[in-house]
Structure formats: structure tokens, C-alpha cells
Here is the input.
Amino acid sequence: MTFPTDSDGASARRSNVPAPVTVGDQWIIGWREWVSLPSLGIRHIKAKIDTGARSSSLHAFNIETFETNGVEMVRFDVHPHQRSDAKTIVCEAPIHDIRSVRSSSGEASKRIFILTEVHWLETTWQVELTLANRYKMGFRMLLGREAVRGRMLVEPGQSYFGGRPPKKKKKH
Here is the structure.
């Protein structure tokens, strides 16, 4: 993910953020990272890297299915920022599958899966995402072990190897 530079040309990356590194062909990723979902129009969303979860999940609500030219589709809304519903992004994607998923509390439910691109640093790859209401959860997105397997190694003591999006300046 490329972040803009400050006015003096320095990277907007914070100085206490470790520099991104690879081991062989795998990136080192922190336990939480800012990613983009370009196919869904989501420029920045904070994701928890959760190796305990098999699948990845995205906070979605107002989920509705429909058909276009014989393709089953889903339309849903996303609040991409934690603890805020100030911004809403309306997304559409083809339905990849509908499966039973067991939540962290052990409850099984049917969920819609979509395929979409995730972009982090200089890499973009396709992942399966379940759509679920994660409003009360700490993170609006989880990247499960299937999404990072063979691509990334998780450093659980670090965060934001990919940097952070620049903070918007408040108007006075």
C-alpha cells in the first residue's frame, strides 16, 4: 500500500513502525494492518490478522441478494472505520458461495462468501470474505489463515508493517 508523503517529502509512515521485510517470498505482517479492498471501493480498512480463524470476514450490513444477467449478486453496506458509522460504502459483488460458518462463540450460521482483492504494500491477492455484521467486534475486518497462508508470516508483537493511512487534518 503506498501512502502519500509529507510536505517535506518524508513518508507518512510513522517512525516507530517497523520497515516491511520479506523472508524468502513471504512478507512479514503484523497482527493488525491497514489494507485496501479496491474492487469494493474501500481505500483503507484496519484488519486483524487472525490465524485462529480459517476464513476472512468483513463487516457488512443491509445485505441483500439479487440477480443480474443470470449472476447471483449481493449488495451490502460497510462502515470501514472502527467505532464509527460516519462513513458508509455501498458495495456489490458476485456471490461466490453460501456456507455454514461457526463463529468464535461456537454458533453456526449460513453466510454469504464473496471473492475480492486485498491490497497491502506492493501486493494484491484474491481472498474469500464472509459478510457478517461485526458492528460490536473490535475490527471491521478479519484476515484469516487461508488469506495469508503461503504469502505472509505473522509477527504477533508488531503492527502496521505496511504503515498507516495519513490522518486527515482538522479544519479550524
About this structure: Residues 36 and 42 are 6 Å apart (CA to CA). DSSP finds one helix and 13 strands in the chain. The first strand starts at residue 22 and ends at 23. Residues 1-15 have pLDDT under 50 and may be disordered.
